[in-house]
Amino acid sequence: MNSANLTDSEIRARGWDALIETLGLSGALRFAMQTERGHGDWAALRHEALGALSVDDLLERMKSGRPRGRKRK
User: Fold this and answer.
1) Sign of CA pseudo-dihedral 3, 9, 10, 11
2) Is the pLDDT at 73 greater than 60, yes or no?
3) Structural domain count of the chain
4) How far apart (Å, rounded) are the C-alpha atoms in residues 73 and 63?
5) Fewer beta carbons within 10 Å, N or C terminal of the chain?
């Protein structure tokens, strides 16, 4: 196989397949969590999504099953 002929998407898909085959799904996810650098400002995204909810308010919302404040795009 010549990986030079594969698109980035195909490389990622084959990489995931190899990880899952070798480590299992949970192991592959654990690996990804350890290697992902992340991006953006998590605190700003959280504030945008949840506003000024306290921990107690958030817990109550989770228990009641109420939908989140912002809608997905």
Assistant:
1) positive
2) no
3) 2
4) 24
5) C
DSSP character for 54? -
One domain for residues 46 and 32: no
Two tokens, residue 54: 């306290």
Q: Which residues have C-beta within 8 Å of that of residue 16, sequence separation ≥ 6? A: 28
pLDDT digits (tens, 9 = 90+) for 18-65: 999 999 999 999 998 888 776 777 788 778 877 888 888 888 888 888
Sorted by sequence, the CB contacts under 8 Å of residue 22 that are 6+ apart come out as 28
Structural domain including 51 reads 40-73
d(CA 6, CA 16): 14
CB 73, CB 49: distance < 8 Å = no
Overall pTM surpassing 0.85 (yes/no): no
